[in-house]
Amino acid sequence: MEDIDVRLVLAKFLRKWHFFAISVGLMLVVAFIYLRSTEKKYMVQASVQLKEQNLNEKGSDDKKFINGLELLENNAAIEDEIGILTSYSVVKQTVEKLENYTNIYKTDSKLKFKPVEKFFSKEVYHQDIEIRLLKNRPQLIDAPIQISFLDKHTFLVEVQEHNATVYDYRSQKPLGIQDEVIFSQKGVIGKPFVSPLISFMLVPAKTREAEFWNNDYYFVNRSVKDLAESYQQKLSVAPIAEKSNIVSLSLQGTVPEKEALFLNMLSSVYVNNDLQKRNQLGMNALSFIDNQIDKVSNTLNKVEGSLEKFRSQSNVIDVGVSAQSYTDLLNQLEEKQVDRKTQLMYYQYIADYLARSATMDGVVTPSAAGINDPSLTKLLEDLNTLNKERVSVAYNSNADNNPVLKVLDQKISNTKKTLADNVQGLIQSSQIALNENQHRVDEVKARINQLPANERNLNTIQRKFQLNDDVYKYLLQKRAEASIAIASSAPDKSIVDQARQVGSKPVSPNATLTYLMAIMLGLIFPAGYLSVKDYMHKRIEGEDQLEKETQLSVVASIMFDSNSKKYRPLTTHPYNDSAFQEIRHYIRFKNQQVIAVTSMASNEGKTYCAINLAVAFAKAGHKTLLIDTDFYQSDVGTVFNLETAPGLIDFLPDPSKVVVNQTSIPSLDVISAGQASESSRAAFLRSSLEKLLAELRHTYTYIIIDTCPVGLISDYLLFASCVDYTLVVVRSDVTKRENIGRLNTILNRHNLKNKSALVYNATRVSKELTNYYKKIAS
What percentage of the chain exceeds 70 in pLDDT? Predict the structure, then answer.
């Protein structure tokens, strides 16, 4: 890969400075129009605490206010809570509560061209007017609805739209598409405006700052789905620290008051949903306790009736102490029997719940039923956690294609199977324990049967009454605790900071950054264009580049002289006079007499440089001869008015008879090329030029030879050995870089590199330098 010469590139760019100035100017205009037409967006932030304690910690059972309600606790990770907070369902619920489905825009009345007017419009919210949609009627959505005021009380509604969608806000579904809607109708401020496709009421905003009837507006209705998806996409939620339970909610919008209202409502909906979920779980526990209280109450009423009837019939008020020991033992066994039955009933309740319910939402915990079984409680907690996890993941995913949901479903199925197996085992063990306890009860009863019948019956009735009374009091206590907990229930999530605008300046578009980008693009575009152009044409554009690619020294640089014509090539510029004097000094320093001037192609200034170099030697008082050997494009004779004079080829085969023409310039003679054929040219160059030059060396101090372009025709190489030094003319922005490579090959192949130098033609010189030389000349 070629090295890049930074100085050369910068010099090239500076020569085209006007490209950069125009490009930067255009980009600044584009940036100004962009900033003028783009709505400014502001940042709004709020913060919410997702849980009072660490989300990875669980409260111990002895810290629960209600024993047995540990499954009601939310132990989801912070990522799950963020997923719920940003879920489509929560955002949609927020949009529905706000009931703000309309974007109102105020247009610039100074701009009369409608497309441009909309382009420079600005969204307003409760500043001038309010649009209250009549949601019980069909509404046009995603189409601009123009409003222009006729006076302070009436307005005109205009719509012109193709393929417009009609929407029903009650069912939240589109009703169809109208191919073309052209509509115009008057309305009254503060009264319902009713039409087949648009129905609303326009009222002045309470905080209006100006006379709104002097402005034009348009509004766009949006569907609930589009609004929810738009807010969900814009909403950003992140923890304020790595292990913090507080998250920051942020939105960017054109109207910060509107975005702040949404964030506040979103936070409120999230907190209230959590509280309702917790209360619903508590209500399920209360319902179970109430059901058990009803059953025990009915049994207690029956026992009380039996005791009252027995006492009235048998006139027995108290039993003897002789049966006390058996009675106490029987009471203990029957209490165990009740416990066993309660456990069996609960296990069967869990088994039935598993059989008929897909989830375990609302299941009563073992401790709420008076059962202390850690393994069963753990399985229920795991199943409940997996169900919550599945609900959290399903908020923002497609249930049919989400592999995470499939994994969760498999875990739930495995946990339910393990739970079912565990419950069946508990049912079997409880049944065995119940049968064993029943056997002992039967043994004690057999012994009590030996007691007097009245005493035995009274003890039986009192025992049943006492047992049911204890159970009844226990259930009442649990119900009171649950009621108090529900009444005093508070969400463990809270709003830390209400939504507020961050800073007073918009976050986008950034005017400073936009203008800097415009300047950068204004510089990059022309630089890229010039670089591509340079890459495509591959021309020589600087002395440094030339010396680097040829390893030859540049004797002098000839300035581009617009006054020099093809047939009047004598330079008139002082800078070029000085440049040719510099070449003259270089030749004298090298102590060379016969100088050939060539180039790689035509139109590179070879003849121009040869003539002016010969003139420079002649003006310095040196007897100089200029020989034209370019037989194909002979211009030397034309410059000195020698078109009809005999030339070099005309005196074959005797070169001693060559006519040397004197010019009007003292000490300068010219031999023109003449008219040549292919055979005569070759014969002359091989045999005659060497003899001619040998004779002329004695007559002239310097001999300048204008040759054919060595890159096109090889004539010069036929007599190069007769020449003392070679000057190769390279023209800026004309000579191809590939020709420079060919030049190196030619010079090396013919051993001319050490006897050659370069003349850089048509270079650009600074204005200060040219003025300086003009002052010298004057």
Answer: 81
